[in-house]
C-alpha cells in the first residue's frame, strides 16, 4: 500500500500533492497525516521533487480547502449551513456536532483558534466555518491559516524525509504500518458513517 501511494504521488508530482491536500480539507477522512509524509518521502528518495516546494504546494492545497469552507460559512450563513448538514452532511460524514465543535473552539480562543485549529486533526477541517460565520476579516483569516498550515505541513513533510533517511531500518515494516494506519482510518470512517446515518 505504501508503494502504491508513493507511486501515485511520484507520478502526479506537485499537482498530486496539492490536489490531495485540498481534498483532505474538504473531506475529513482523507488523512494529511499519511499523504504529506509520503510526499516528503518521495521528495527525499527520488530527487525529482524538492522538499521546500512540497511544503509550498501542500500548504497551497490545504489553504484552498480552508478558504472553501471560510467562503461557504460567510456566504450561506450558519443557519442555512446547519440545515444543509442535517440533510446531506452524512454523505461527507459531516454532522452538526462537527460544526458545534469547531464553533466552540473558535468562540473559546478567538481568532487565534484559526491558527491553532489548523494543527489539530478533527478541528483543522472545519475551523474555517465559524471564522466565516463571524465575518472574520479575510486578511487575518488567511494570515493565521497560513501560519498554522505551514507549521503543520512542514512538520509532516520532514517526518517523511526522516523516514526516507532511515529507510533501511523501517523498510521491512513500512507496508504493514501503512496498512494498519489505513485500516484504522477505514474503521473510523465506517464508524462516522454509521453515526451520521443513524443520527
Task: Summarize the structure in words.
With 199 residues, the protein is an all-alpha fold. It has one domain (2-198). The protein is 82% helix and 0% strand. It has eight helices and no strands. The protein has helices at 2-26, 32-46, 51-88, 96-109, 112-117, 128-133, 138-165, 167-198. The protein is globular.
Write the layout of secondary structure elements.
Layout: H1 2-26, H2 32-46, H3 51-88, H4 96-109, H5 112-117, H6 128-133, H7 138-165, H8 167-198
In short:
With 199 residues, the chain is mostly helical.
Number of strands: 0
Proportion of residues in helical segments:
over 70%
The Rg value, from CA coordinates, equals 17 Å
Structural class from helices and strands?
A: mainly alpha
Q: Helix tally? A: 8
Order of helices and strands: HHHHHHHH
Low-confidence stretches: none
The share of residues in extended strands comes to under 5%
The rounded distance between the terminal residues' Cα atoms is 33 Å
Number of domains: 1
Q: What is the arithmetic mean of pLDDT?
A: 76
Q: Give the overall shape, derived from the CA principal axes.
A: globular
Assembly level: single chain
What attributes does this structure have?
single chain, 199 residues, mainly alpha, 8 helices, globular
Amino acid at each position: 500500500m505504501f508503494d502504491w501511494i508513493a507511486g501515485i504521488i511520484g507520478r502526479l508530482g506537485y499537482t498530486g500533492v496539492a490536489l490531495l491536500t485540498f481534498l483532505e480539507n474538504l473531506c475529513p477522512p482523507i488523512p494529511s497525516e499519511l499523504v504529506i509524509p509520503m510526499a516528503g518521502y518521495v521528495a527525499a528518495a527520488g530527487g525529482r521533487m524538492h522538499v521546500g516546494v512540497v511544503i509550498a504546494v501542500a500548504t497551497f492545497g490545504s489553504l484552498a480547502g480552508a478558504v472553501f469552507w471560510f467562503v461557504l460559512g460567510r456566504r450561506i450563513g450558519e443557519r442555512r449551513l446547519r440545515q444543509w448538514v442535517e440533510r446531506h452532511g452524512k454523505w461527507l460524514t459531516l454532522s452538526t456536532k462537527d460544526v458545534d465543535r469547531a464553533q466552540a473552539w473558535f468562540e473559546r480562543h478567538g481568532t487565534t483558534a484559526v491558527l491553532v485549529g489548523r494543527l489539530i486533526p478533527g478541528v483543522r477541517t472545519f475551523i474555517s466555518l465559524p471564522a466565516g460565520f463571524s465575518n472574520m476579516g479575510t486578511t487575518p483569516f488567511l494570515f493565521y491559516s497560513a501560519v498554522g498550515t505551514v507549521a503543520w505541513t512542514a512538520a509532516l513533510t520532514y517526518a517523511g524525509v526522516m523516514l526516507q533517511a532511515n529507510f533501511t531500518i523501517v523498510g521491512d515494516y513500512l507496508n504493514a504500518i501503512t496498512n494498519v494506519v489505513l485500516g484504522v482510518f477505514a474503521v473510523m470512517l465506517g464508524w462516522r458513517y454509521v453515526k451520521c446515518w443513524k443520527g
